[in-house]
Design goal:
This protein has 20 helices and 16 strands. Helix 3 packs antiparallel against helix 15 and helix 15 packs antiparallel against helix 16. With about 500 residues, the chain is α/β, with parallel strands linked by helices. The longest helix has 17 residues.
Length: about 500
């Protein structure tokens, strides 16, 4: 262990020595990337920008999120873990402990890790494991009584796989751990809770901006159809940016022969999920000290299914089996495109004069805008066999506390200066990054197929045909029985 710590300190010293203290840096040069190529978690666009020695400059008039993050960190228990090497097992170290530090966000993540290491006297090492194999490896470690990792960083959709094998600690039992702190995403912990246990939690340290999605629009196509795009922007804070409003705009451009109305690409399969959640529905209703149940009825989801039927029913919509739709949007061939935020970097030099909006609401009277994050959004879990649960609980808290707010601010600031084409899009980007939502069905649907069958798989299947009620009752009954059996209120 001491030898590993020595190596870790040497690696960290080399890495920090390579980071320039100030001056001009190239952030993710995308000059060779086409608008259809695959994005990465920290794709920040192609441009040159000047940064301070910290990699982040607070914009005038914006609250000092860095100071707030530091206050959160200072409020945690003071600990000296005596140089312990702390291993985080993850299938992808790109956002939590990036090796490529060219982007501003990656540089800040490295700096954040160094702050946590210094405060707690630990060395953080991200240990990369295959996502599917991690469950088996942890099982083997528990069976043999050997060490696997201090902390797990896993895709949200895999949480159920660990639950099935009873390899995760109930986070509520960890010492000095408070899931109600503002630097944890409350919905992520609620969506991974059932009965008396909470299995995972997310925060700014785990949720890369690339796991969010939005609605890109072609300003010229919309304005040629008589749509006031500034009014669309204003409708967002006014609360009147709804799916009905988007549909009315698509109908206004449907007569054009040279473009499609609305498209999706890398998230086409998940498009019904996004509409379902953004319209205020929950696939599963759950939380601490609750037995999870299917969280919607066919009647309550009727408006949502009507919207989906109208969207899929448009002759010029490209929501299924449309390859390279983002490139078509970049070339001005669609009015709206629903896509992850990393697509912004591909549109830097696009022919299309584009803007960005959040996913719409169901109606003007609804609450906040909701963005169901990507199924592979990462969350923290604590392995059940950890000999001292305090250590992963405190380190996990420190990582989320030290990340809160300001890393997202830096992401927005970079895109404001180098990627987006109007100030309104900056405001939309800020809002989207504050709209994360999760669902129990995503976390546990792969491990318990009956849950998936009654929730997102059913909605996806019925989205074009609007026949949800045909199978809903039987599937709901089966899913509720499985959840009662596996997430009950007995010890």
């Amino acid at each position: 262990m001491n030898f590993k710590r020595f190596l870790a300190v040497c690696c960290a010293a080399v890495l920090l020595a390579t980071l320039p203290s100030c001056g001009f840096i190239v952030v993710n040069d995308l000059s060779g990337r086409s608008a259809g190529s695959e994005g990465t978690d920290n794709a920040d666009g192609a441009a040159v920008t000047e940064v301070s020695s910290t990699g982040y400059v607070k914009m005038p008039g914006r609250a000092d999120a860095k100071a707030k993050a530091e206050s959160y960190l200072a409020s945690l228990p003071e600990r000296d873990y005596e140089g312990t090497v702390f291993f985080i097992a993850t299938p992808d170290r790109g956002y939590i402990a990036p090796e490529d530090t060219e982007s501003v966000v990656s540089r800040l993540a490295v700096q954040r890790n160094a702050e946590v290491e210094e405060r707690l006297n630990v060395t953080l090492l991200a240990d990369v494991h295959d996502g599917a194999g991690m469950v088996e490896e942890l099982n083997q470690a528990i069976a043999s009584g050997t060490f696997f990792a201090d902390l797990l960083l896993v895709p949200f959709y895999r949480v159920g796989s660990f639950k099935v094998t009873s390899t995760l600690l109930n986070m509520r039992t960890a010492p000095f751990f408070d899931l109600d702190q503002p630097y944890f995403d409350r919905e992520s912990s609620e969506a991974s809770s059932g009965g008396y246990a909470t299995y995972a939690v997310g925060g700014d340290a785990t949720l890369s901006p690339s796991v969010f999605s939005g609605v890109y629009f072609n300003r010229k196509i919309l304005e040629d159809a008589g749509v006031d795009t500034r009014a669309l922007y204003r409708s967002v804070p006014a609360g009147s940016w709804t799916w009905d409003r988007l549909l009315s705009v698509t109908e206004a451009v449907a007569s054009r022969e040279d473009c499609m109305t609305i498209t999706a690409d890398s998230l086409a399969e998940r498009f019904p999920d996004l509409v379902f959640k953004s319209m205020g529905n929950n696939f599963v209703q759950t939380g601490l000290r609750k037995v999870p149940v299917v969280g919607y009825t066919a009647h309550k989801a009727e408006d949502t299914m009507n919207v989906l039927e109208r969207l899929y029913g448009q002759e010029k919509a490209g929501l299924e089996d449309l390859e390279d739709a983002v490139t078509a949007f970049a070339e001005g061939k669609s009015a709206f495109h629903v896509e992850y935020l990393y697509a912004m970097s591909w549109l830097t030099n696009a022919k299309t004069d584009w803007g960005l909006l959040p996913l719409p609401k169901a109606s003007e009277g609804d609450g906040a805008y909701r963005t169901l994050v990507a199924n592979d959004a990462q969350v923290f879990c604590i392995p059940k066999n950890h000999t001292n649960a305090e250590i992963p609980a405190v380190v996990l808290s420190a990582l989320c506390a030290a990340s809160d707010g300001y890393i997202y601010d830096a992401y927005v600031d970079y895109h404001m200066m180098n990627v987006v084409r109007d100030n309104d899009t900056v405001n939309m980007l800020d809002l989207i990054l504050d709209s994360a939502c999760f669902d129990f069905a995503v976390a546990f649907g792969n491990a318990f197929p009956s849950i998936a069958d009654a929730t997102y798989r059913l909605v996806r299947k019925c989205a074009p045909t609007n026949n949800l009620s045909d199978e809903y009752s039987a599937l709901r009954t089966e899913a509720n029985a499985v959840m009662k059996q596996n997430f009950d209120l007995t010890y």
